[in-house]
Amino acid sequence: MPHVVLVEPEIAPNTGNIGRLCAAVGVPLHLVGRLGFRLDEPRLRRAGCDYWPFMELHRHDSWPAFRAAWPKLRLVAIEHVPAATIYTAWSFAAVDALVFGSESTGLAESVLADCAAILSIPMPTGHVRSINLATAAGIVLYEALRQVQQWPGPAARQVRATVPTSGAP
Fold it and tell me: 20 to 30 A Cα–Cα from 159, which one of 11, 40, 112, 141?
């Protein structure tokens, strides 16, 4: 199962939303380095609702501590870098750790150097400099899960839309 790694996240609601996402899909969440909030902060808990007990949360004091604890993960950075590979062109694996940087500064060069790839999410209009951290995590995590778990599975194929057979348009 892929992992989500947040390096020095700054905004509690973003981390709370990502925690809820990780709880929903059963993916471990790693918080690395200095946080811009306390883990008992009400805004963090509110964004994650009451799902924190269902999340596999790992706290690491530094990037080297994370690397030492999880050396076999393949690190995949998600960063707004013009030359980066688009996330849909990457072949995700169960050993991947999706690495996201802080909201204001992104990932340090030393972290990027440890990563097997740097992926980006297209923003074709050019009107914004970045996508919200929680949104970016959701976009890339679901693509990774789709590939790794080969979604949609048999249950998804059984769902059918009903179309009215009357003369209604």
Answer: 141
Rounded distance between C-alpha atoms, residue 68 and residue 142, angstroms: 27
SS (H, E, C) the chain: CCEEEEECCCCHHHHHHHHHHHHHHCCCEEEECCCCCCCCCHHHHHHCCCCHHHCCEEEECCHHHHHHHCCCCEEEEECCCCCCEEHHHCCCCCCEEEEECECCCECCHHHHHHCCEEEECCCCCCCCCCCCHHHHHHHHHHHHHHHHCCCCCHHHHCCCCCCCCCCCC
Q: What is the CATH number of domain 3-157?
A: 3.40.1280.10
**What whole-number distance in Å separates Cα of residue 144 and Cα of residue 129?**
24
Find, among 4, 109, 131, 110, the residue nearest to 56 by Cα. 4
Domain ranges of the chain: 3-157
64-92 pLDDT tens trace: 999 999 999 999 999 987 767 999 999 99
| AA letter at 55 | M
